[in-house]
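Checklist before submission:
- one chain only
- standard amino acids only
- sequence pasted in full

Submission:
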Amino acid sequence: MQPTTLPDTDFLNNLFTHHLNCIYNGKQFLKKNIGRLIDMASSKKLRIAMQEFASDVNTQIARLEDIYKATGSAPGEHMCNPIKALIQDEFCLDKEQTISALNDMDIILYVQLIEHVNITSFRMLLAVAKKLRKSDVVQLLKENFDESKENDSLFMAIAEEYIGV
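Returned file contents:
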């Protein structure tokens, strides 16, 4: 459906900053809490994947900070954040789980949910950045988008090993 009027540049910039703050604050929250997820993983392969994921989160945060610089803006607080909500929900995992594979599958599920939020957020940011003709920002967002898709695929491959696919 086409809007009746095309959005103006101010609206697009506000939309971009809003979603950038959303993803940035979610990534910062994840960075502070990912260690607990890594510690909960029972398999070596999952722990290694989680450590790689943690490294990617740091890299993505650095790119997001570069985007703030390129757009002349600064991170703002965003209280309603789907990534924070998912991470907080994750920490309700049953730590008394006696079947470690179930615990690992729960971790994989939560990480994939987070990555799907990231993929969707980066897709939205890419569309707006392209409309605003911010090619330097588009490149940084594309790198984060691609990295999130790769992480999603990695965790899906690990999940498939657990279920014998």
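Reviewer check: The chain has five helices and no strands.
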